[in-house]
Design a protein that fits this description.
about 325 residues, Beta-lactamase, 7-stranded antiparallel beta sheet, about 20% strand, globular, Asparaginase, Asparaginase_II
Amino acid sequence: MPAADRRVPAHEPVAHVMRSGLVESVHHGSVVVLGADGSELLAMGDVDAACYPRSTLKPVQGTALVRRGLELPAELLALAVASHSGEARHIDGVRRLLAGHGLDESDLGNTPGLPAGEAARREWLAAGRGAERLPQNCSGKHAAMLAVAKLRGHSTADYLDPGHPVQREIERTVTELAGEPVAHVAVDGCGAPLFALSLRGVARCIGRIAAAAGGTPEAAIASAMRAHPEMVGGSGRSASLLMTAVPGMLAKDGAEGMYVAARGDGTAVAVKLADGGDRARVAVTAAALARAGVPPASLAGVGGATPATAPGIALVGELAGHWHG
């Protein structure tokens, strides 16, 4: 299968923002739902153009690290694929992960940041702290990359170089699980290499991890995420809430309007909003999950996943009939 085309994506309207019965704003995007057998159940927009998966790729990166020997307690393995909120449990977990491999915060190469969670960020700032590497949402992934570099006897100072053995293994795993070559390599917001795929390929990745046979690295990642959804995101975060609400579900958010989710049988959803925003992202994902067979009523406790919790959002096209609960 060829790499995704690096064209400008031909997104289409997926959600309207309504005010008093009038369309005030329009969110364009692309959505794909793949069945457990990989068949296409829904495609809107341009699901074959190259896009950046951003943090939705973390479960794939984690799979590669487990393949290279990473062994962690389940809560720390979930943290290794997290976009965590920077809560105390997350920061403590990153410290434990580093210390268990003879590393510390000074070894981290991720971009410094503040905690992603609002409450955690307020507490951090109130304590007089600023942007640091430890509370930044990708620190668990970076700690895990460093751990594998140390375990395999590789250098750690350059672990973010695309040519580093750890990053080469990640790219191989991305290509395998996506079923297509990487279309482009860039630098993610955290400083790690970022691999462009089609949205269809992104959906294949999460579906294959969700349905992986027991005893495989993919299954280890899926099991850790399901057992510790609070470590993947944090208090009130939609991905954590989705995995708590629906048994067997995997869910992962990403920057610039990205979202993926998959049922235990491998039925998978991938969403990209063209404006890169969050306002309609959970609503669009929830409607796509309904098309994937997830009962909409099961998402009632997830903010933004039903009309009652996303006032003013109206889904359009093939998503409209699945937007209820």
